[in-house]
Structure formats: C-alpha cells, structure tokens
Amino acid sequence: MNKLEIFTGSANPKLAEDICKELGKKMGGITVKRFSEGEVRVKIEDNVRGKDVFIVQPTCTPVNENLMELLIMIDAFKRASAGRITAVMPYYGYARQDRKDQPRVPISAKLVANLVTVAGADRVLTMDLHAGQIQGFFDIPLDHLFAVNVFVEYIDTLKIKDLVVVSPDVGGIKTARAYAKRLGAGLAIVDKRRISPEKAEVMNILGEVEGKNAFLVDDLVATGGSLLEAANALKKAGVRKLSAAVVHGVLSGDATKNIENSLLEELIITDTIPLPDHKKHPKIKVLSVAPLLADAIKRIHKEESISCLFD
What was the pLDDT predicted at 277? Predict the structure, then answer.
C-alpha cells in the first residue's frame, strides 16, 4: 500500500478524508487555488513518481468548476510521472445528457468521458451512473459501483412491514428490482410522462401499493419535481407511509424546501455530493459510501476483483 496515494480537489474533501481514514492513509498534499481571473491553479506537494494515484472529485455543483479542476489535476499528475491515475468520480456530472433524444442536442456525457481520457486518466471509478451505457463512452477501464447495499443495510434496521419498493419511472425498474429482491419486498412502477427536463406528469401506478409502506428508489434527485410528483400519486393510490432512497442528492433550486413540505417521511441520500447543511433538514438522512469506495480503491490498487462488492 506504500505506492497508493489519494488526493482530492475542492468538490468533496470530506468524502476523500473519510476514504483515507478507512484505508489508514494520509491525504496527499496538493494545492488547488484560483488565479485572480478565475483560472484553476494546481500544484502537487508530494513526490508521486511511479505512484498509484486516486483523485477523489465528483463533478457536482459547481459542475464546470469541479470538472475543470479534475482535468487539470489529472494533467498535473501525468506530467509528474504518476504510475497510474484513477479518477474517482462518485457523482458523474452531465450523465443525463447521454443520447440525442431530440434534434440538435449534444451527447455531453460522451464529451466528458473524452475529456477525462485525453487529460490522462488511466482508469475511472464511479457510482450509480444515470445511464449504464455511459460505461461504453470510455476507452479506458471503468469500475461502476452501486449504493444499493448501503441503503438496504439502513432500510433493514427500520423493520418496515408491508414494504413495497417503487421505481419512479420505467427506466429505473432494474434498480428497483434489485432493492426489492434484497429487501424481500413487493415492486411497483410509476408510469409518467416527461413534460420538461425538470418536470413530469404521473399517468399510472403499476403494481399493488394500497395499504403498503413504500420506498421510492432512484439514482439522483435534482429539483425534486419528479420525485414529489410520484410521491403525491402514490399517496392518492393509498400508500400509508412513504420514504425515498436516492444515491446522488443534487438538490438544486428549492429542492430541500420542497422536500421538507412534502408527503415524504424521509429522504435518504449518500455523501457522493456534499450536503454541509443537512442537519438543518430533519427529513434528509445522509449515508456514507466512503467504506465502499475505500474497499474498491484498495482492491483496484492490489489488482484484485471488485465483483464481490456487488453481492
């Protein structure tokens, strides 16, 4: 483990510190600042020649700033002769733009993959991509982790009876089925029609939910519009208690305020994206994925399989 080095930018230093604690490693020294006009300035403080470097940097808000930081850090480590560079991107920004769903739009998820690769990354470690096919956008190895077991361990402690796992849309059926299987719960689907990128209209509820306690599961929550629309529809369909488990808490705009005033009992998210004021939001529970990421980093460094992390 002497050749393993972990560094972080300014996107989520707390997560990087927690990963280091799990691994018993000291955080690598790096200076990430800005010139007066806003350009990113990076200086690596440690000797990384021949080292196995992991850069923890989710591309969360501010997305473009954090993405540029990541690219410049990768370039700095490449020019400092690092042995291998792994971009640890717990949250992969621009993932929602993964295809041309209308004329004259970009495939930004592919562009970001190209940028990370060209910058000099040898490998990528990420979690719960918005679309699984994004893995194919990379021409370098990509390890894709899932937070399902982190959530299941917590939900099991709640001892919820008559539990049904609900997918907020048809695209999330596979994920919801994984939760339902591990929890021994029923499965339901919200059939909705998207009106705009931030808003959707619920059409039908597929599955038995009346008199049940429901858990909505999804990969990310931004404004919360779609999630809360689904929650309202489930309540009308006769659900007793309703909670949600969402991996990436983007929580943009008035999301936290809307969640506090919603029918949700609790929103569980992970720390892939920092939420420094989460204590001010009693309905929001944050679970750490640091142990999972630390285990994956250790296995990648030792050239061991990470498939056991999916069991």
Answer: 65
Phi, psi of 229, deg, nearest 5: -65, -40
Strands (E), 15-98: 30-34, 40-44, 52-56, 84-89
Distance from C-alpha of 77 to C-alpha of 80, rounded to nearest angstrom: 5
CB atoms within 10 A of CB 36: 5
**Mean pLDDT calculated for residue range 72-90:** 98
Q: How many CA atoms lie within 13 A of 153 on its CB side?
A: 9
Active-site choice (192, 236, 241, 279)? 192
Q: Is 283 a catalytic residue?
A: no
Once rounded to an integer, what is the mean pLDDT over residues 64-93? 98
Task: State the SS3 of 165-205.
Answer: EEECCHHHHHHHHHHHHHHCCEEEEEEEEEEECCEEEEEEE
Whole-model pTM: value is 0.93
